[in-house]
Amino acid sequence: MREPTPKTTVFRYGSNDRSESVRKTLREVHEALKEKGYNPVGQIVGYLMSGDPTFITSHRNARNVIASLERDVILEELIQFYLENR
Question: If I label 5, which of 14, 21, 42, 74 is the partner at 20 to 30 A Cα–Cα?
Fold first, then answer.
């Protein structure tokens, strides 16, 4: 007799609140980087790839704002948004 297969655990993707928090954070950081004359996309990518907070300006508290989120959470949101809106 076969043993029953355990149920598959379902991963519940982040909440709408989390998505909005990531979007708001990225908008704020993007604007601060732009104001300081940086290439915002390049700087954010550098931060996400390396984890080095010096890629993000401290102008408008952007460095602390982006550091309040885990990088993997930001990446999850970016990938999810890209795939849904492609």
Answer: 14
